[in-house]
Design a protein that fits this description.
The structure holds 2 protein chains of 2 kinds. Chain A contains 4 helices and 7 strands. By secondary structure, chain A is of the alpha/beta class. In chain A, helix 2 packs parallel to helix 3. By secondary structure, chain B is α+β, with helices and mostly antiparallel strands. Chain B has 4 domains: 138 residues, Beta-Lactamase; 170 residues, 2-Layer Sandwich (Beta-Lactamase), CATH 3.30.450; 101 residues, Beta-Lactamase (2-Layer Sandwich), CATH 3.30.450; 135 residues, Heat Shock Protein 90, CATH 3.30.565.10. The chains are: A alpha/beta, B alpha+beta. At the A-B interface, helix 1 of A face helix 12, helix 16 and helix 17 of B.
Chain lengths: 123, 638
């Protein structure tokens, strides 16, 4: 299995505590580090600006708000990220070429592969 | 006639032997006998009659006895008319000519109307006085009757043309017929052979004394003979019911007598070879029906039939127009017509309502006034398609109403053409699908949202499974814990469903999260004010309290018989504090590592309530203190 390099720092943006905890465990299980975990748009923007991380996982719907401002910020900063969504094909995203999209519920393999692909682009 | 005249014993008559006749008479007689035209000579003071072959049918049964007889004797029936005419010629020596002279004659035993063109030319004797009269003439009854019929039909046509009531047409026609023929009754009946009846639609009567026979009668009511004649398409005439052998002893004779009818003439109308209607005239005195009468009745009956059908068709058309107009007026769908230049030529009230204007004011305006340029181009393209022979078009178009709304119309439009197929304009039916579109959008959003929630829930279940089943607990214990957590999640959604995904209260949320403890007796108390929670927060809190409850039961105060849990929450200013206090249980100590339960509590409360959570494992029982700000979002209070 292709995995991201050990120690890759991942920022997790997810408003559902159970899903967030699960994502954190998955990230740690594959040898990466959780650089931060945000449950709201405000928190996510704070961490996106201040935290040190290599890759971000963005839940599109954050308790009624979208995480698109975070996506824009990351895109502009050249930080790769994964969208996670329960919206299927109706997800209101676009304008972010090269972004990975993970549909909920996603498994360990899906997440590992997506993170590995983005990590590979980091060089 | 030359033979008869030669053989006649003139010597025994006042005219004397032929040899004694004056030369003027002899010359005139020669002329007369040699002429193929009807000619007669009336000679001498009592106008004794000499005539040629052409003239011989004129007096009817009085030929040949009329030869040599005086005029007043031969023409006793018409002498009041012709007597004075003869006298004038004899006295004045001036010739006399008349045209279409009416002469009621009794030639064949009965009085008949007749009309004549004739002349009286004086024949002078040697003494210069009028000795006789040369008569030339012929009957013109047929021509006169033909003309009369023609005039009657002309005036009838004029009257009937503007009449659209089928029964009025009949009434009008029989009235004219009756008055013209000077009969007691004139009527018209329609026959229903299948039903075995005929309906006298109208019967004009000369006066109140003549009974009314209008209405429905069984066929044969006026006699089997009559009915048979009608079926055969034959005219049925009775000149005198009292004398006619055909009706003697028949029910019709009785019927005629009862109705005061002495003479009747009935003419059938055949349609497609079948007896369809009949026209009739009745008279209360004997009447000699002529072929002219028959022809008149036939003509009028045909006229009635045609005018009646025209009126019925006109009425049916009017009815159909009225129905269509009603549909047009009352349709909920928008209906409009337009010329090929896209100018509106008609619009129904629904069109007016949709556009927020009086429908009548739409006529004369361009369709383009209600469309954006882009949409008008599209509508014009559709018109071009139709003109190119693509038939009807169906498309959706955005319409701008007068009051600034934009509606989505689904338009079905066809080309209206004349009989030759030349396009005249457009007929269009449109339906406002704005609401439907909105509804479809709502539905799509709803389905997206449902999809989102289902996926989210699946992710939550997946997380629960992953969190519960990792680690080194025995499989049976892990399975039970997973089932309990799934049960808590399910109860949380039950709570939301009951509230229709609106807000729930903190009390309900805590009760749902800790519901398993109630089964073991009332060792749990919950107290606190009304605090509202958003659906998402409620789900997280149910899961958190479920973990606290499980801990209390498995590791905390509730393991002992006297153990209990007090859950108290209060609102102070803009802060909410919740205290979970266990007591009466075995001594507690902090666990070596935080399991899913405690992580869940901290995370759920922290992320959904932005709460500060303090876990205390000292003292006589586990305590969890939650301190959260009350914001307008999650955890708002009243």
């Amino acid at each position: 299995m292709t995995a991201p390099p050990t120690g890759t720092r991942v920022l997790i943006v997810e408003d559902e505590p159970i899903i967030a905890m699960t994502a954190e465990d998955l990230v740690e299980d594959m040898g990466c580090t959780v650089a931060g975990s945000a449950a709201s748009l405000a928190e996510a923007l704070d961490l996106a600006r201040c935290a040190s991380f290599d890759i971000a996982m963005l839940d599109i719907n954050l308790n009624g708000e979208t995480s698109l401002p975070v996506a824009t910020l990351l895109h502009d900063a050249g930080v790769p990220f994964i969208f996670t969504t329960g919206y299927g094909s109706a997800a209101p995203i676009g304008g972010f070429p090269g972004t990975e999209i993970l549909k909920k519920p996603y498994g360990a393999l899906d997440l590992t592969t997506a993170l590995a692909r983005l990590a590979a682009r980091l060089g | 006639m030359g033979e008869r005249i030669r053989k006649y014993d003139w010597a025994a008559s006042p005219m004397g032997a032929r040899e004694t006749w004056p030369s003027t008479l002899r010359v005139t007689l020669d002329l007369c006998l040699n002429s193929p035209f009807p000619m007669a000579i009336y000679w001498g003071p009592d106008l004794r009659l000499l005539y040629n072959d052409g003239w011989s049918p004129i007096p009817g049964k009085r030929h040949p006895e009329a030869l040599g007889r005086p005029a007043y004797e031969v023409w006793s029936d018409i002498w009041p008319v012709v007597g004075p005419q003869f006298a004038t010629v004899m006295e004045t020596g001036c010739g006399y000519a008349t045209s279409e002279q009416h002469l009621p004659m009794t030639r064949f035993g009965r009085l008949e109307e007749s009309y004549w063109d004739y002349s009286f030319t004086p024949i002078f004797g040697k003494d210069g006085r009028v000795s006789g009269v040369l008569n030339q003439g012929h009957e013109v009854t047929a021509r006169v009757k033909e003309h009369e019929r023609h005039m009657l039909m002309l005036s009838l046509s004029d009257r009937l043309r503007d009449e659209d009531e089928p029964d009025h047409i009949v009434a009008m026609a029989v009235e004219r017929l009756g008055a013209h023929m000077n009969v007691a009754r004139a009527g018209y009946a329609e026959v229903d052979l299948a039903g075995g009846t005929f309906d006298i639609v109208a019967n004009w009567r000369r006066d109140e004394g003549v009974p009314d026979v209008a209405g429905i009668h069984p066929v044969g009511a006026f006699g089997a003979d009559l009915h048979q004649a009608m079926l055969a398409g034959a005219v049925f005439g009775v000149d005198d019911a009292a004398e006619d052998r055909r009706v003697q002893g028949q029910p019709v004779a009785h019927r005629y007598t009862r109705l005061g009818v002495r003479a009747g003439l009935v003419v059938p109308v055949l349609k497609g070879g079948a007896y369809a209607a009949a026209i009739f005239v009745h008279h209360d005195a004997p009447r000699y029906w002529t072929t002219h009468d028959e022809r008149l009745l036939t003509t009028i009956a045909e006229q009635i039939w045609q005018e009646r059908n025209r009126a019925r068709a006109a009425r049916a058309l009017r009815e159909s127009e009225r129905r269509h107009r009603l549909i047009f007026e009352q349709a909920n769908d928008i209906v409009f017509t337009a010329g090929l230049d896209q100018t509106i030529t008609g619009a129904n009230p629904a069109a007016g309502r949709a556009l927020g204007v009086d429908a009548n004011t739409l006529v004369g305006r361009s369709i383009g006034e209600f469309l954006s340029t882009e949409q008008f181009v599209r509508a014009s393209q559709m018109l071009t398609n139709k003109l190119l022979g693509h038939g009807a078009t169906r498309y959706e178009v955005a319409v701008n109403t007068g009051d600034g709304r934009t509606l989505q119309w689904e338009v079905n439009s066809t080309l209206a053409t004349d009989d030759a197929g030349t396009p005249l304009g457009l007929h269009a039916i449109a339906r406002d699908v704005t609401e439907r579109h909105r509804h479809e959008q709502d539905q799509r959003r709803l389905i997206d949202e449902l999809n989102h929630r289902v996926r989210n829930m699946l992710a939550q279940v997946q997380g629960l499974a992953q969190q519960t089943l990792r680690g080194d607990r025995p499989a049976a214990v892990a399975r039970q814990a997973f089932q309990n957590r799934l049960g808590a999640l399910s109860a949380a959604y039950d709570l939301l469903t009951a509230e229709r995904w609106g807000s729930t209260t903190l009390a309900e949320t805590i009760a749902t999260g800790t519901r398993e403890l109630d089964i073991e007796g009332a060792r749990v108390s919950r107290r606190g004010p009304h605090v509202e929670l958003s659906p998402k927060t409620a789900v997280s809190l149910v899961m958190a309290f479920h973990e606290l409850a499980t801990n209390a039961r498995d590791h905390g105060a509730l393991r002992a018989d006297g153990g209990k849990v007090d859950i108290v929450w209060q609102v102070e200013g803009d802060r909410l504090s919740i205290a979970w206090r266990e007591s009466g249980g075995p001594p507690v100590s902090a666990p070596s590592r935080r399991g899913f339960g405690l992580r869940m509590v901290e995370r759920a409360l922290a992320s959904d309530l932005s709460a500060r959570v303090t876990l205390d494992f000292s003292g006589d029982g586990f305590t969890c203190r939650i301190d959260a700000p009350l914001t307008a979002g999650d955890g708002s209070s009243q």
